[in-house]
Design goal:
- With about 160 residues, this protein is α+β, with helices and mostly antiparallel strands.
- It has a single domain, classed as 60s Ribosomal Protein L30, Chain: A.
- It has three helices and seven strands, in the order H-E-E-E-E-H-E-H-E-E.
- The chain has a five-stranded mixed beta sheet.
- Helix 2 runs parallel beside helix 3.
- The two termini are about 20 Å apart.
- About 40% of the residues are buried.
């Protein structure tokens, strides 16, 4: 099954890729690698109020995982723009997750699974990846989560 057909099977349609919110490019291609800049859980260019604030505080861990999934969807939207089709992704190499965590909140891996699980659902074994999950004090727009991605791509 291809990545694009997996999206259809899951009933997912990728949104228009969000524009950068500062002075950076949304992705960079370096040889066989595509690096996607950190993506927020934006829908229609706006942060859902349920995805604003600190996970383990105003944002539940379950909502944080949904925010991570949406941010990963936005990373995939950037990858599709860069490549023309997600079927050119050979493997998800790495995800980086930044969780806007309330003091003392340590259940970060479960929040990040929102993004990781999506990659495996779409790419199968090629979606299994290395990752880093970091709790942070603040994120842009007070987002609960930010996800960055690195993909190996076919020419």
């Amino acid at each position: 099954m291809t990545a694009e057909s997996s999206l259809l099977r899951l009933g997912l349609s990728l949104p228009d890729a969000p524009a950068p919110v500062a002075n950076y490019v949304p992705f960079v291609r370096a040889g066989a690698l595509l690096v996607v800049s950190g993506q927020l859980p934006l829908a229609g260019g706006k942060l859902d109020p349920g995805f604003a604030g600190k996970v383990g505080g105003a944002v539940t861990p379950e909502a944080g995982a949904k925010a991570a999934r949406l941010a990963a969807v936005n990373a995939l939207a950037q990858a599709r723009i860069a490549l023309g089709s997600l079927d050119r992704v050979r493997r998800v190499v790495r995800l980086g997750g930044f969780i806007n965590a309330a003091p003392g909140f340590t259940a970060l891996p479960g929040v990040m699974n929102g993004a990781s699980d999506l990659m495996v659902e779409i790419f199968g074994e090629a979606g299994r990846h290395a990752r880093a999950t970091v709790g942070v004090a603040e994120l842009p727009l007070d987002a609960a989560v930010e996800i960055e991605a690195m993909f190996e791509v076919a020419d």
